[in-house]
Amino acid sequence: MLGIGDEIKFVGSDFNAFIDHTKNAVILDDGEYAILSRDSYVVKSILNEEEVAKPITKIEWDSETSKKGGYPHYMLKEIYEQPQTISNALDLEPSGLDDVVEMFEKAESSYFLGVGTTFYVAKYAQYIFSELAQKYIPPISSDEFLTLANVNKKTLVFAMSQSGETFDTLSALKYSQSKGAKTAAIVNVMGSSMARMVDEVVLQGSGPEICVISTKAALSQMVVLTLSAMKLGLKRKVISKKTYQENLQSLKELPAIIQGILNERSGFIHRIANKYCKNKNWLYLGRGIYYPIALEAALKMKEVAYVHAEGMPGGFLKHGTLAMIDDEISSIVFVPPKEKKDLYQSTLHSIEEIRARSGFVLGIHFTEQGKNQDLFSEELILPNVPPLIAPLIQLVIGQLFAYFTATSLKRNVDKPRSLAKSVTVG
Ligand code: BG6
Asked: In this structure, which CATH number among 1.10.10.10, 3.40.50.10490, 3.40.309.10, 3.90.1150.10 belongs to the domain 265-408?
């Protein structure tokens, strides 16, 4: 980009123009150049110096908006960046993941570590590693790690952190290293304290996440963890090369599917969120791997809309929570694809229990189940997707639902009260 005072000299047989270097000149890509000053401009042909008339398009952006690329909030911008950040995650240098997979294989015990959103990412990792690698790795919230974990030199502690600066997670890693454990982390910020302190770091490459509320960084970490679980499963011969390739193909379809949902379902989610934004108490229900999705989606609702939302495994309902269900309680249920037969059936059973007690249920489910009005109070139908990526699609819905609820309630979306992007103090 040329700056004021740059000299532009065209030397050549076909044209020769020297632009007054006291002005700020920009070369346009159609053989013209513009001379700009604070309150005027002129466009000229490079060839013959004649002035060229140009239509004016006034962009009503202030500088802050222009940084948001026209989006009203960074949160929405970052939700819409997810197709790209997922592609970035899938393009990661495989060696980085192979080294981490090797560490899991060598460790006698392992833990996933995170806090807030990244604890729910760690919980997602627990399910996906169990499913794809038959490796049970407990997630521990960083703030509880020192009182709960048994760490020794044969332990691997694998942390997730967008900022790489969260005090509790750094403390847990330092403690682990003091016990001789191996440490690894997925982080989004190159050069962060965590990236520099662990034995192995995976830089997820999601780009700057400005909004205090984490969206694209969390989803991208889940994709990296899914890939890592697939690699570990292949190495442990738990899944075949064919299954690995099928799963990889499913992950590669994810960016386009999310783009389609952002384009075609956002309007509906906006309307539903606006219609029910005054609902005071939400239960977020998911079974199996949809449980961490429910937890993270509920956290989004609390963080950005300041609305009470409790994530819970569907099976918990009958053990007490059911007593609370009445027409004052709203539930959002993340329904798996029908091919996940047991999960699907047990999720429907949870919904029936709520509806039988006049509870409101917003069902998020997939097309092949068809319209099912008597089961849901409201329903959002998603396109058929491969089961592996269905939970990740459901998370995007949860992000959008929280975002539009917050805008309906006129919340300070990018800087919610009482929150910080990363808590760097104890
Ligand atoms: C909390 C933020 O302080 O830290 C959450 O409010 C975030 O949004 C959590 O998920 C963990 O941060 P990080 O940077 O370690 O992923």
From this structure: 3.40.50.10490
Q: Which long-range contacts (CB under 8 A, 24 or more apart) does 414-420 make?
A: 414/73, 414/74, 414/75, 414/210, 414/211, 414/212, 414/213, 415/212, 416/212, 416/213, 416/303, 416/304, 416/306, 417/306, 419/212, 419/213, 419/303, 420/212
Q: Tell me the two tokens of residue 328.
A: 């004052």
Q: Say if ligand 1 is within 6 A of residue 163 CB.
A: yes
Q: If you take atom 10 of ligand 1, which residue's CA is the nearest one?
A: 117
CB 280 within 8 A of CB 388: no
Using N-to-C axis directions, what is the helix angle for 241-275 and 390-408, rounded to 10°?
Answer: 20
Q: Which residues have CB under 8 Å from 238's CB, separation 6+?
A: 132, 133, 134, 232
Please check whether the two domains, 63-239 and 265-408, share a CATH topology. yes
> Which residue ranges make up each domain of the chain?
1-56, 63-239, 265-408
Q: Which two tokens stand for residue 60?
A: 């009503």
Q: Using 50, 70 and 90 to split pLDDT, how confident is the model at 47?
A: confident
DSSP reduced 3-state for 155? strand
CB of 125 closer than 6 angstroms to any ligand 1 atom: no
> With a threshold of 0.70, does the pTM exceed it?
yes
226 lines ligand 1 (CB under 6 A): no
Q: Which residue has the higher pLDDT, 297 or 50?
A: 297
Q: Does residue 34 have its Cβ closer than 6 Å to ligand 1?
A: no
For the segment 283-339, what is each residue's pLDDT rounded down to a tens digit? Answer: 999 999 999 999 999 999 999 999 999 999 999 999 999 999 999 999 999 999 999
Residue 38 has a pLDDT of: 72
Class for domain 63-239, per CATH? alpha beta
List, for residues 95-107, the tens digit of each pLDDT value: 679 999 999 999 9
